[in-house]
Design the sequence.
């Protein structure tokens, strides 16, 4: 994340303002868990994509949680609690995308009480638990893919809801 801050022209920090806290948390966790310097070096290629992911999008934390849990599910069957968490994340994303005012208010309040770093860390720990036992190169590849997929998902443009109201995605 320090590299992201420098690329963005911000002060040297591992918590750059230009990156959504959920994506920054995931990037730090993936970097810490990849145990091969060559694989870790490839993460730097994702740094430009982490810039301007901003703080204003309510879907970002839910998208990162969903990415973590989908990675976990690809390795092994999810525990029941994680399956429910994944379903809730998808439901919340759908509610926001449909442009519901109350959904945005409800999720905004929920996120105020549940810091992104804590929520993402919890989902990431499920993924790590599911990936344990895999050969190191495969685990590293899946973690890299997790970060790449999460960034791509969070950078997707927002579609206009059939009602004509955009499901806003501010960055």
Sequence:
């Amino acid at each position: 994340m320090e590299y992201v801050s420098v690329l963005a022209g911000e002060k040297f920090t591992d918590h750059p303002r230009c990156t959504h806290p959920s994506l920054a948390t995931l990037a730090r966790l993936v970097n810490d868990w990849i145990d091969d310097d060559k694989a870790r070096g490839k993460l730097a290629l994702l740094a430009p994509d982490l810039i301007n992911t901003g703080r204003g999008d309510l879907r970002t934390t839910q998208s990162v949680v969903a990415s973590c849990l989908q990675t976990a599910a690809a390795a092994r069957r999810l525990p029941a609690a994680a399956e429910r968490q994944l379903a809730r994340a998808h439901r919340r994303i759908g509610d926001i995308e449909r442009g519901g005012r109350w959904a945005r208010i409800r999720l905004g309040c929920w996120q105020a009480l549940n810091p992104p770093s804590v929520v993402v860390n919890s989902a990431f720990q499920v993924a790590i638990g599911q990936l344990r036992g895999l050969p190191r190169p495969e685990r590293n590849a899946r973690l890299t893919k997790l970060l790449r997929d999460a960034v791509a998902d969070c950078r997707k443009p927002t579609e206009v809801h059939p009602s004509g109201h955009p499901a806003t995605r501010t960055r």
Remarks:
- The chain has one domain: 2-155.
- The chain is about 65% helix and 0% strand.
- Confidence is low (pLDDT under 50) at residues 160-171.
